[in-house]
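--- STAGE predict ---
source: upstream dedup step, 1 unique chain passed
mode: sequence only
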Amino acid sequence: MLKRILIDECLDKRLAKEISQAFVRTVTQMGWAGLTNGNLLTKAQEHFDFFVTNDQNLSFQQNLKKYKIVVIVLSPRSNKLEHLKALVPKLLVELKKPHDGIVYVS
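--- STAGE serialize ---
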């Protein structure tokens, strides 16, 4: 089954092209830029399996267990594309595993 992945607007949109064998869209492509995290996750869970972000505080701001979407939090050295791309192999491994709630990739 093809994984459906939403990339947060705080990440470089070019990251979407680095994730192969998946249906990948950005928050901006979906027309959801500027939504609060709660509203964004509510919309995203209807269309996506995974939400990829680098917002380290998301789990403190939202009760992620109430959403039917897995949140993957990337922890790159910086938000530069080269540092995000370095995490893609680990991200792809995590996409193959069953998860609930939140996953950290660094």
